Amino acid sequence: MSVETFQVPDLPQEPGEVRLFAHQVEALEAIVRGLTLRPGQSAPNGLRVTAQMATGSGKTYVGAAAGQKLAPRGVVLVVVPTLDLLLQMMGEWRRGGRAGEMHAVCSLVRRELPLSVMASTSGRQIAEWIASANRRRQPLTLFATYASVGAVEDAYEYAADRGRLLPPLDLMVCDEAHRSSGHIEKSWAVVHDNGAIPALRRCYMTATPRVWAPPKPGVRRREGADQPLPEEMACSMDDQSIYGPQVVSLGLAEAIDRKLLAPFEVVVLELRDPGADPAAAKRQPVPWGPGVGEDENGEEDLVPAEQIAAIQAALVKVIVERKLRRTITFHNRTIEARYFSETLNQTVDRLHTENPAKYPEEFWAQWLSGEHEVDFRKETIGDFGTAEEDEGLAHAVLSNCKVVGEGVDIPNADAVMLQGRGSMVDIVQAIGRALRIKPNEGKTASLIVPVFLKPGEEPGDILESDSYGPLVKILSAIRSHDARVVEALAVPQKSGKRTTGRSAEAQMAPGEGEGDGSAAGGFSLPVRFQSKVDEDVLALFIQARVLTGENQLWREGLGHARRWHAENGNLDVPYSARVGENGVFRLGEWLTQRRVEFANGELARHRVKMLDDLDMIWSVSDARFDTGLDWARLWAKEHGGSLAAPARASIGGYAIGGWLAGLRAAAEVPEGEPGALAPERKAALEEIDPWWCPRWPVTWQRSYATARQWWLESDGRVDWAGLSVEREFEGEPLGRWVRAQRSGFAELDQEQQDLLAALGIEEDQELAAARAAAAAKPKVSRTDRFAAGLAALAAFVEREGHARVPRTHKTEEGLSLGTWVNNQKARRDKLSAEQLGQLEALGVAW
């Protein structure tokens, strides 16, 4: 493969210092915790965890930070799907703080790689890299594609054949890990085999742990399933024996709610198929025509020219009406991407002629495919981002065929057009690239989906028509990013936000339910049709075509609430409570969302009465504290019973650190004064952790909690005095902290000493004895010390004939005379006139 195929990035020679955001810190802590071997724990198959992070939320930097935290001087293998992404990943890991050598396990040649990076698929060479790094205790990071990772297996086989024991990898990070599952590529299963590629830890990272294929008609919901599932998936990472537990779950809706991504909408272009119904096509309310242009061989029939012209006209209309600046169109064939781009401005010109006040004379239009050389691709992508500034064109359209994929940086796009063709994995990836939008821009991105209606079908007939297959595919792909977003559309509730006519939208009420009972937050997915589509109709369409059965969240939630009330006599349900068969329904979250709706006046009266009959607790303030308290219990459970969370800490998207910091501040206010923490709330927190609000810094308490966790998991049998100073636990420098406590034991608060003593951490007796001996010595005054130094200096002058005392000179009595003289010079301003005179008399030069 030629060098022109790849963009060769610069690789920084020194590690960077990327500051992680709160959600990334939360993810890093969960990964480190999941990949930390507990005292007495064995993991013959290696520790494994899965981290789901929405596209654009920075999982690459989290992976790099995990590599530094877990293997700062070890060997890390990073596996990615493509060579483009491999090259990009090298630079991002370096910028993310990864030090040491970096090499590629692939077929790229030297000129295709950054400086200082070597590439090889030779088992012998890879074995030498690993052995050398281990011998020198230097960090090494290997980057491989799923197609080339078998060469690492060859390295271990090479070493074994020669009687050498090659150490296991300290960490393997599998990016876009869904590519290693299901039916995608069975040959990539070697990344899971600890016998083939030994690794102490594996971290599987993805935005889409499940990729749904559109369900077959008639498939019903599976009994006991956590959420409606189709009969088949393109891929699934549910097998914990392979992928380990999912320790991070940051879905698309949560990322949007946390302003990490901009919200988006689905825009459906309902068009007439010109080939099947020419007469009806003429009545379509958007201009269109046969189009012009042909491929190099003059075979015009290789592209559906009339359909493309219809899509172009509808797309231009949407771009202008929504003021979209940059749009990317995805095509399965190079000739179609080229044809679409080269004829687009003819359609624009025709619309401008008919309505010059609305449509501009020209769009920026260009196309790309994998056959283009890297310089042209780079230049074109750059022009796409600056078309308005450089050429004065307000709208830019980039048509591509398998170029804008994994590992390709593109300018911020307002919209993408997807025709629902190709594999589900490709469609999911295209949407993922499109949603990488700069956060906090205050705009909504558009996913544009053209559909062609058959003769006799009318726009809006989504239940009866089979022509909406592309929409089904796109919604299924969005569901792969975050199932809750799409499943919520199957539970309509009038929100008062829906308009009518051509701009009608089907939109769910904020937070209305999902198939697994979790809250989708404030983001709701608008699906906009050219025609009027009722919410209930859209819900049925989602249920019948995208999901696998009717979603009756309200009835299901109310049923679980009734059973809880019957068993407990109240609805005081913890936020994290899961009920039902196998605990698949999140009743606590469901009730919390009902409280929010009630406070906002969005909950129907008859539903309010149903919950009142069950003694519903409506106080939002109390509910918020109860919600925080429940998250606090979860945090304490995962952190050795401690609530010493950092201020920026979060769990499950909940800002537990800030919540606790605010309560600590309130606890400092005297009881009865405004802002003081209520006694019952303080007692509730102390029940979880008596030291949640200590007199000493909370950072000390957090380190103590780490030591206590180590002690607990060691069954209380720990030789603290013999603990290595290099010992780390869950990313914390446990050994250094324990040594500092033992050496500074006497300066600690009495209660801190008691806490340490409860774990068997005592004062360093040798150090204590030395301090006691020093304290027993009679103290020498500064005047006496000056007199002793002066006498030693006089003896030196008498013996040597000058006062130029070498800095390292010591007397027979052990006095550092050279240092003493220099100190007197440094503090000349603090010496008395008599002392100055005495020194000058001995010949001290100032």
From TrEMBL:
What's the superkingdom here? Bacteria
| Disordered: region residues | 278-298, 494-518
Identify a single GO molecular function assigned to this protein.
DNA binding
Alphabetized SMART domains for the sequence: DEXDc, HELICc
Q: Which UniProt keywords apply?
A: ATP-binding, Helicase, Hydrolase, Nucleotide-binding
Is Nucleotide-binding tagged as a keyword?
Answer: yes
Describe the location of the Helicase ATP-binding domain by residue ranges: 40-209
Matching PANTHER family: HELICASE-ASSOCIATED, HELICASE-ASSOCIATED DOMAIN-CONTAINING PROTEIN
Entry protein name: Helicase
Q: Which organism is it from?
A: Kitasatospora phosalacinea
